[in-house]
Specification:
The chain is of the alpha+beta class and 264 residues long. Helix 1 packs parallel to helix 8.
Length: 264
């Protein structure tokens, strides 16, 4: 357990929900009665979306929407493996994109949410399994880009680069889209230190710091092999005390830089 992680994530989420609502974007957020708690509007999870009537009103969209602004993470892996091309990312065919490089335009992707392992979807498949119309799907895209533009504008002066992030949505009882779950936190999004970025270095300020630790010790490779073989996932090795304290400090620091608020 990482000290203060839950509180920083909860308070960061509450901050961005407040920002979204100021922008006229619907959210499921009601209030945060304490630093570690949040009350939200309940949405229905449909167990068999294939039988869902398009007229169904309030429900969770079984999708995760990822928008990438820089080359990192799984996008970098797919780029190196030849599974995505420079042209698909908006670069000239002759260009070789580098780790951390800003994309010519945001790269929008959709994956499953309720399956055991996230699966990348085409636009058509995403609409089919969620019951969305093309206009509703485009509404999600436009909302995310609007939020990310606001985030970038706020965060750059606070010394942060917003590299990528995921968001989730639901329909309310009027079938209006609202953003749900959490977003803009150190767990849902990837942030880099802006000063280091301008100097050509990538300093992770998100849970990617922890992910890279597990990559270095070989756990991620073992996990991926188990998933590929459809075997039980191996237990996650606990963090050493010094590493746990370092990660706790990162969560507190990123909270303060994301929100402009003091943790204590």
């Amino acid at each position: 357990m990482i000290p203060h992680k839950g509180e920083t994530l909860n308070r960061t989420s509450a901050y961005w929900f407040s920002v979204a609502e100021q922008m006229g974007i619907l959210t499921h957020f009601i209030e945060s009665p304490s630093p570690g708690q949040m009350r939200v509007k309940r949405v229905e999870v449909i167990h068999d979306y294939s039988k869902m009537d398009i007229c169904t009103k309030g429900y969770l969209l079984p999708l995760e929407f990822i928008v990438r602004h820089c080359i990192a993470g799984s996008l970098l892996d797919r780029l190196r493996a030849g599974k995505v091309s420079a042209e698909e990312l908006g670069f000239p065919k002759s260009h070789t994109p580098a780790h951390g490089e800003a994309l010519p335009q945001p790269f929008f992707e959709v994956t499953t949410k309720l399956e055991p392992v996230d699966r990348k979807l085409s636009t058509e498949e995403a609409m089919k399994i969620s019951g969305m119309t093309p206009d509703e799907f485009n509404g999600v895209r436009e909302t995310i880009l609007k939020i990310d533009e606001r985030m970038a504008r706020e965060l750059r002066p606070r010394g942060l680069i917003h590299a990528d992030g995921k968001k989730e949505f639901a329909f309310d009882n009027n079938r209006d889209l609202m953003i749900v779950d959490t977003f803009g936190t150190a767990d849902e999004d990837r942030f880099w230190d802006a000063r280091a970025y301008d100097e050509g270095r990538l300093v992770e300020l998100s849970k990617e710091f922890v992910r890279q630790h597990y990559r270095k010790i070989g756990y991620l490779e073992t996990l991926e092999k188990a998933r590929a073989a459809r075997k039980p996932e191996p237990d996650i090795p606990p963090l050493a005390d010094a590493m746990r304290d370092q990660v706790s400090g990162i969560y507190i620091d990123i909270f303060e830089r994301l929100t402009g608020q003091k943790f204590r």
